[in-house]
Amino acid sequence: MTTWTRVCAVDDLVPDRGAAALVDGHQVAIFRLSDSGAIHAVDHLDPFSHANVMARGLVGSRLGTPTVASPMHKQSFDLVTGQCLDDPAVSLQVWPTRVADGWVEVGSAAA
Amino acid sequence: MTSAVPTVHDMTTEQALPAEQPGPAKKKLAVVGAGMVAHRLVEALVERGADQSWDIEVFGDETRPPYDRVALTSFFSDRDPEDLLLGDGSLWRRPGVRLYRGSVVSRIDREARQVHARSTTFDYDKLVLATGSYATVPPVSGSDLPGCFVYRTVDDVAELRQWVLDREAALGRKVKGAVVGGGLLGLEAAGALTALGADTTVVEFAEWLMPLQVDRAGGGALRRIIEQMGVSVRTSTATSRLKAGRDGKVSRLQFADGEKIAADVVVFATGVRPRDELARDSGLEVGERGGVVADPGCLTSDESIYAIGEVAQIAGRVWGLVGPGYTMAEVVADRLLGGTATFEGADLSTKLKLLGVDVASFGDAFAATNGSLEVVYADPTAGVYKKLVMSDDAQTLLGGMLVGDASAYTNLRPMVGRALGSDPTGWLLPEGMEPPSGSALPDDATVCSCNNVTAGQVRCAVTDEGCTDLAGVKACTKAGTSCGSCVSLVKKLVDVQLSEAGIEVSNALCEHFAFTRAQLFDIVRVSEISTFSELVAQHGTGHGCDICRPVAASILSSLGKGHVLDGENAALQDTNDHVMANLQKDGTYSVVPRIPGGEVTPEGLIVIGQVAADYGLYTKITGGQRIDLFGARIEQLPGIWKRLVDAGFESGHAYGKSLRTVKSCVGQSWCRYGVQDSTTLAIDLELRYRGLRSPHKLKLGVSGCARECAEARGKDVGIIATDQGWNMYVGGNGGFTPRHAQLFAEDLTTEELVRAIDRFLMYYVRTADRLQRTAPWLESVEGGIDAVRAVVLEDSLGIAADLDAAMEAHVGAYEDEWAATLADEKKLQRFASFVNAPETPDPDLVYVEERGQRRPADEAERAVLIAGASLPVRPKEVLA
User: Fold this and answer.
1) CATH topology assigned to domain B11-134+274-336
2) Are B761 and B807 within 8 A, CB to CB?
3) For B353-405, what is each residue's pLDDT tens digit?
4) Is residue A109 part of a domain?
5) A21/chain B closest Cα distance in angstroms
6) Closest chain B residue to A63 measured between Cα atoms?
7) What is the ipTM metric for this complex?
8) pLDDT, tens digit (0-9, with 9 covering 90-100), for B745-754
């Protein structure tokens, strides 16, 4: 059963720029892409540096896949799957997102 | 590391060396002489692992480790002799290799196999003589007067320079200089004297200049060009005596024809003589005209002693260039490892830039071959003389000489002995000739004659050794690492080989743009494009990445297209530029207010201190004379900056690829040595260039006198005060590959200086590659620093007005990014820690106290602290 947490208005998200949010005690990085309008959410914790910084990474694309690069040491991650594109052993958890009444909601599995 | 003097052993440390480790007995090699050829020998031995079986001891009489004697004249433009050192010094730190500097070998005892140096003896199994040569001074009366010099060592050159500067000061007028000898070294010396501001006359005994390299017509062309530069030339002139003035110093030259000229300084460049007296004294066979006689294996009349370089006479002659010396060094290295290599003579081709004039001579330049044909092109008005020597059927190139324009040299020299395959005149015409494509050159053609590297070896480096760029091939083969004249040809070979191997040679920025940064800069500059999405839609592909987005942001900012947080620009900035602070390892930021020129009032210091205390920020003084405040959380940045801006501070751009600081010494206003007001200049420059976005960070420095307390030569632009004004240096940096800045212009007024820096910086901003600092940029510009100097000081590209206008626009449009951000409610929203809890601190941050300040806890400390043990110190929380 997924619990949905309302975090902000869609317009609060700057296109192609991330924002951090607290979801059910977790730090989540949320991105709104300018081209597709899609909203993605992944862990805010950078698995390489162990700092909560992923929302401050640069958004981009690699061969068509939307990506975010860690601002610490620039490893890129697939925003859709959370997979690190520079190290197959590392990935970010992906969080489900949806838009309801102009609000962004992030889902978390209920305990 | 390059500026560090390599560690070398002197006689005292030798005494203190520990006993040899037990093991297979190593043989002892003594190398007498520590010049370029000796360096190459040791390098070749170490590369082949010979230091496993040999202990190598090198004795040099100079106090310096081996340096690049060929580049001696560069000592005048770049006055640090350490820049001339060969290699990075690691060679001399290897176990089993020892360099004894300042150690004259007084005797070789061949019977006992010992060399005597200073007051002790060293055993050897094999000995290599590499003592080089002396500069000769003709036996004319007065040639030993004070003010007479030769041109051979760094010390010679340093003394000459000091003499000229002292005489100029004492006489209160331009110094008159004379160079006796109009050959290669003489013209080098004339260039050096001219650069020191002397009125110079070159005196040559032969009928024309450079008689060993060029023919009468070529010498005539050379003379015309040199005279146009203000250097006087007298040929067919013998110097009969030198006379002193009343002060005992040299004052005039008298010639055999009775004429005389005034001279306050005289340089003898009449030739060299092998330094073979050690060999004579020990009974080795020595040639009639000097030089230790050696066989093609470089072995002397003693089977334990080799001779290499300019002291050796092989095949009946002494070889006075570094290229053949290097070949001999390789031969001996091979022999010492049991090989049978021989020295079969060498290519004596030369290409030089003397007084800024290209001169090249290669192959049978004087058409000595029977029936050879000469194809000549001469244009006296353009100052060009070119000649090709062809076989009697006009098919095979035998040699040639080029004066005034030697651009064809690189392509022609490897073709010596081969069919040119086209009308030879095509090579001589000003518009030049389509050079042979990289693949046309046969494998056995020598591409780099200094290091004897063939086209085949270069290709091999790509196909077999896996080199994928020019730098890799240079490191692997040494091609192009000495005089550098073949680099363009080597690059062409590498590129062809790479593309044949299916490896794409790409200058593209990233997968989204097939352009270099400089090309993108021009695209944005000449178009109406002002956003990344327009740029990627019109000239790129995809959605960008962490490489091209910040590049686009920097270009848009350099061209004055908006605040870093305006509109779409915000999504292009690295987090540092986005929040205008420097990201640290735990996700917090550091804050650096601008302190122009390092000058700060006590009241300012108190404000910074109070802000740091209130927010619990770790405080450290930076290398750029300002104060860094660490540990600011993203949501604290606006509050911190509100207080700093209110106190009159502004962004220091420590986060940006932009001007960081202009470091200065206190200068004339306080210092008893200062000759100019360095602090005021530093402040003015920092305020002028603050906020200028550039390909990489930019640092400047201003020193108020030659003592250089501001370390300006370690900066991208360094300024050092002189009695007359300012000297400007460019291309220095610290960091991973430290560089000393090179002299760019001398004795500028403040106005001239500012204009030169304006243009230099703007030209760099426009044309450098991404993350390329000024030093590698200067190397990458075609023509190097000279070309950039021409653009900046002489407007050689006709863009100076454009560069000036661009800098004026930057200066006029500057606003403090932090003040502008604080005034914009929308921008301030971006500093929220969490979009749904904007003031909540990151709960995972943990600190410990150290020396009275806090720092992020390490992994072990975190485990303890998070597990609930009592915390030694909690960070001081600040309530907004």
Assistant:
1) FAD/NAD(P)-binding domain (3.50.50)
2) yes
3) 777 788 888 888 888 888 888 888 888 777 888 888 988 887 888 999 999 88
4) no
5) 5
6) B542
7) 0.95
8) 999 999 999 9
